[in-house]
Amino acid sequence: MARPDWPPDPCQPARPGRHGPGLRHNGLVNADVVVIGVGTLGLSTALHCALAGRSVVVVESHTAGSRSWGADVREAAPAQLAGQLSYYQPTGDDFALWCPEDIYIDEPASLIRAFLPACQRRGAAVTENEPVTGISLTAGHVTGVETGRRSITAPVVVDAAGGWVRQTAGLAGARVPVTTVRHQLLITAPMAQVDPGEPIARVVDAAVYLRPAHGGLMFGGFEPDPLPVDPGHEPGSFSTDDILLDLGVLRQLVAQIAAEVPAASTAEVAEHRGGMFTMSPDGRFVAGPVPDLPGLWVASGCNGSGFSSSLAIGEALATWITSDAPPPGMAALSPGWFGPLPDAALLTRSLWQYAHYYDPIADAQAPHTQAGVPGRNTGAFS
Ligand SMILES: Cc1cc2nc3c(=O)[nH]c(=O)nc-3n(C[C@H](O)[C@H](O)[C@H](O)COP(=O)(O)OP(=O)(O)OC[C@H]3O[C@@H](n4cnc5c(N)ncnc54)[C@H](O)[C@@H]3O)c2cc1C
């Protein structure tokens, strides 16, 4: 049943909450934290800042939901491989690993739909169809954002604008070290032999993954020659729907596993989807304060894992924002750790990360480990 108070009217005051910012038609709105973007990283950061007692406004240009280390990894016996994946036919020389924690949710948008009411219950206001057009600065400090409708003042602004993160940070003259790259997947028409309860399979040699979805098989992969997508060079109306999809790329990837998963090559395609990954030069999240611009924070560099990691990243980032000290491990994700990385090196290294998504051992040959290339892996991490 539809909730009478959802979606919220951005021109109405937020539901009374202990720390709700309250939004009005026009004029100044005060908040402790403004988050730009209602992706999972933005919403998780907003929710955890609200849980820490901060007043939060999340500003979204479109609408919401439009789209471990220490992991338990064990070698899987051939019988297990054959018995747990009805859609996969082992060839006999497969080496398989079983990761019980590698779970998935059927539709990622359901995570957004879970975050939204959680944010609202904690008094965080989410406004839609309100692009951030400016980031306000006073004496070198971020003091809020400008939208077409109003000014929102806040000492903390979190840029969680996904594929647009670089353009948004650019509003304040800042630079975020990520490259936006196309990623595609397809879902086949329903197939009787696919058991919807079965696990995801990641075929590392072929850089592909498969899992049950909508009664059929979902299939995606990492093309060896990735396509960068720069919304900054596209018209202002550019959205993920405008990304050039290429079924041929997926066909080539799936051809590599025709023997193991014959159905993936032959089944009818029910849905072909694509979007953007924000790839970082070392394949890790980019989350933390922007150097030399007090008040501006970034939650990005999803590297294709923004849904699965958003709860942890958002919580840790909110702890850093509200306590002023990085939780363990977070300083290593800070955008400042890369130093002055030229655009060409950023592009080369980020595309390498995409193309070697399932190939971390090749890290020794990665561009960032080569002499003379600055970056966080060649500094404190090498
Ligand atoms: C095909 C595909 C499959 C994927 N599969 C997985 C998976 O299996 N597991 C996983 O963990 N991750 C997966 N991902 C990655 C995942 O989608 C992202 O990591 C996740 O969505 C996090 O994104 P985000 O929060 O950084 O940004 P987004 O979700 O892109 O949100 C950013 C938001 O900011 C808004 N915005 C931009 N500019 C402005 C502005 N100026 N003002 C206001 N708002 C603005 C945008 O409209 C957008 O809504 C997949 C991605 C794709 C494309």
Describe the model.
The chain has 382 residues and is an alpha/beta fold. It contains eight helices and 17 strands. Strands 6-3-2-10-17-16 form a six-stranded mixed sheet. A five-stranded antiparallel sheet has the order 12-13-14-11-15. Helix 1 packs parallel to helix 7. The radius of gyration is 22 Å and the shape is elongated. Flavin-adenine dinucleotide binds next to helix 1, strand 11, strand 15 and helix 7.
Q: Report the order of strands and helices.
A: EEHEEHEHEEEEEHEEEEHHEEEHH
Our count of helices gives 8
Number of strands: 17
State mean pLDDT (0 to 100 scale).
Answer: 87
Major sheet description: 6 strands, mixed
Contiguous runs where pLDDT drops below 50 for at least 5 residues: 1-18, 371-382
